[in-house]
Amino acid sequence: MKSWTAEALNTAPDSSNKIHGDELAKQYGFQGGLVPGVTISAYLIHPAIELWKEEWLNNGYADCRITSPLYDKELFTVDAEVVDENKLNTTLVKSNGSVSANAAISLSNDLSNPPTRRGDELVDDNFVPPEASFEVWKKLESEGCKAFRFNWGGKDPLVYLKDSSLLPDLLQPDLGGMANLSFLLGCSNWILAGNAYMNPWVHLQTVSQNYRAVSMETDLIAEMSVNKFYEKKGHEFIDVDVNLFDQKDNSCVMTINLVAIFKLRGS
Asked: Which positions ≥6 away from 250 have C-beta within 8 Å?
């Protein structure tokens, strides 16, 4: 496959997670605000969408790992290696030659056992999440997490390129496009931060499985469960599973395993 080159877009410069803003990111030794991991993951998946189109949105799998920062307006190239007719490996290389992320992507053959919705309590408008800590994660692990509702579409749909016309046709909002990975994986970020306040925090890896493409103006219900939390080299990590369901029929559209640093060393 041909390599794909684009200009990075920081889709969350004003996020409550200040690692995406220049001021705080520079305090931690970065050049500027970090492009979100979910956006980088969308870049890694872009060649798969071009290759498999809606088939990947309906049954695609992706293991996306972020290994170094990517910054706003930074030029990058995604190199794609076709393993076989159902598998693709991609690598995001920055203009200076360093690798920022990689992914193992495939089409799945067995989608016979999607998760079912538990019916977790939906968060209300007045909910204020506790500050993330091992004690809070332990409580959420045992007592359960709040569910959240997200809508694909609206007045300003989240896209991963500044010029949405450069997206594959089936992802362009102006054409009534399907939800892209930046938004769908973003739901796992938002429910994580919605259940426990973190600032700053860093998205590291997602392993996701699609069960159905998400069409414009779909309301999704996200449910989360805590797997584990641990310390390593001074950073504190959280590992969660997030399932996304179509509110209309409660069918699962995607499962996501998310690993993140919720407390950076020295914070």
From this structure: 116, 117, 221
